Amino acid sequence: MHLRKQMPAAVPIACIAIQLMMGQAFCDDHAKAKVTFKLLDVPSGQPTPAVVCIRDLDDGSVRLPPDGRVMKRVSLAEEFYRGISFHHDDHDWVGPPRKMLGKGDNNDRSYVYEELPSIPFWHEPVLYQTEPTFSITLEPGSYKISVARGMEYVPVVQKFAVAAQDQDHVIQLDRWVDLPSLGWFSGDVHVHHPTTQKAHQDFLLRYAEAEDLHVVNVLEMGHHRGTDFKQLGFGKEFRRRRGDYWLVSGQEEPRSTFGHIIGLNTTELARDLETYDLYDLAFQRLHDQPNAVVGFAHFSWNGCNLPRGFPWYVTTEAIDFVELLQFSRINTLDYYEYLNLGFRLAAAAGSDVPWGSTIGEVRTYVQTGETLDIDRWFAGLEKGRTFVSNGPALEFTVNGELPGSEIKANGKGKVSVRARAWGHPKVGVPELLELVSNEGTLHTERNTDGGSHELSFEMHVDIPRSKWLAINSRCDNGAVAHTSPIYVVVDGEPTWSPTKSQEIIRKQLDAIAVIEKEFADGNDIRSRAIQERLVRAKTYYAKLLEATRKSTRK
Question: Per the confidence metrics, is the pTM higher than 0.90?
Answer without folding.
Answer: yes
